[in-house]
Amino acid sequence: MAHATHFVRRFGWAWLDRAAIALSGLCVVHCLASAVLLAMLSAAGGLLLNPIFHEVGLTIAIVLGAIALGRGVMEHGYVMPASMGAFGLGIMAGAMTLPHEGGGGAETLWTVIGVGLLAFGHDLNRRAVI
After folding, report:
1. Which end of the chain has less neighbouring CB within 10 Å, N or C?
2. Where are the beta strands (DSSP E) in the chain?
3. CA-based max dimension of the chain
4. Cα-based distances in Å from 110 to 32, 33, 92
5. CA 70, 125, 96: angle at the middle one, nearest 5?
């Protein structure tokens, strides 16, 4: 536990928001690449198109959001970053209910919008802490 405390004292909590923003960027790349490559990979399948990949990714996003955005509310007292992040997570969760294939890209569009709002919430949170 002493190592974790030392890390937090030295680097603060903003690293968690930066990591979440980076993961949001990876999610956008995955969504857009999956949409473009879907036709090429439809016969082969693959892990990146497997629904469990999306469910695990959303779970990680929810956990990181709860920790980083919740910590921000406790530290700086602003609810807006957490609200924006929660709104983005809700859109991402809603996008998972849309058809993955043959949906006209609606799932990808709503996922990218949700990821963007989540990243914006993390950025607001990071800026409020500084």
Report:
1. N
2. none
3. 51
4. 12, 15, 7
5. 70
pTM as predicted: 0.71
Phi and psi, residue 46, nearest 5°: 125, 160
Amino acid at 29: V
Token pair 């058809």 is at which residue? 99
Per-residue pLDDT tens for 27-42?
Answer: 777 776 766 666 565 5
> Can you tell me the distance from the alpha carbon of 77 to that of 128, in angstroms, rounded to the nearest whole number?
9
- Give the number of C-alpha atoms closer than 13 A to the C-alpha of residue 109, restricted to the C-beta side: 6
Tokens 């980083």 map to which residue? 68
Q: Which helix (H) or strand (E) holds 93?
A: helix 80-95
**Helix residue spans in the chain (DSSP H):** 2-11, 14-41, 51-76, 80-95, 106-129
CA distance 77 to 114: 23
